[in-house]
Design goal:
mainly beta; 6-stranded antiparallel beta sheet
Length: about 140
C-alpha cells in the first residue's frame, strides 16, 4: 500500500553548550544526524525540515532573542538555514530559562553524509543551550 500523508521525524541533542555570546563560534554547536528515509537516496537526507526548537537556561544580561544558523559542516561555512533571530519565550517562574522556535518548511538535500550543525548567538547577553530538536517530514 502506498503511503498517504506526511511522516514526521525528529533529532534531539541534549549536549550542554556554554558560553553563547554575541557571535557564532566553532565549538559552540549542536550536531544532528538526519537519517535518510528514502531507500533510493543512497543514505543521503532529502526531506523537508519543518522547524527547530532551542531550549536555553542560565540567561544573563536580559537577553530577549537568540539567533540560530544551520550548516552542513562543523566549521559553519556551508549554510542551509541562514542567521535567523527568534524571540525567547521565558519561563513563568524562572526568567533565566526559555525557548526559541524557528520555522523552516523547505526541502534540504545533504550532499555528503547525514549530519547538520546548529550554531547560536545571543544579543545583548549570554546563555547556555541545553537542548535542540530538528523536526522534519517526508
Amino acid at each position: 500500500m502506498a503511503k498517504t500523508g506526511n511522516f514526521n521525524h525528529s533529532s534531539t541533542n541534549t549536549t550542554t553548550v556554554t558560553g553563547i555570546t554575541t557571535t557564532f563560534a566553532v565549538g559552540r554547536v549542536h550536531k544532528h544526524t538526519l537519517l535518510a528515509t528514502d531507500p533510493l537516496s543512497s543514505a543521503k537526507y532529502v526531506n523537508k525540515i519543518e522547524g527547530i526548537y532551542v531550549r536555553i537556561n542560565s540567561l544573563t544580561g536580559g537577553g530577549t532573542a537568540l539567533s540560530c544558523k544551520g550548516t552542513f559542516d562543523a566549521a559553519g561555512d556551508d549554510i542551509w538555514f541562514p542567521d535567523t533571530e527568534g524571540t525567547l519565550a521565558l519561563g513563568v517562574t524562572t526568567a533565566t530559562k526559555g525557548v526559541a522556535v524557528f520555522e523552516f518548511k523547505l526541502p534540504v538535500h545533504i550532499e555528503v553524509g547525514s549530519d547538520v550543525y546548529l550554531f547560536f548567538k545571543m544579543s545583548p547577553a549570554g546563555c547556555v543551550v541545553d537542548k535542540t530538536t530538528i523536526t522534519w517530514s517526508e
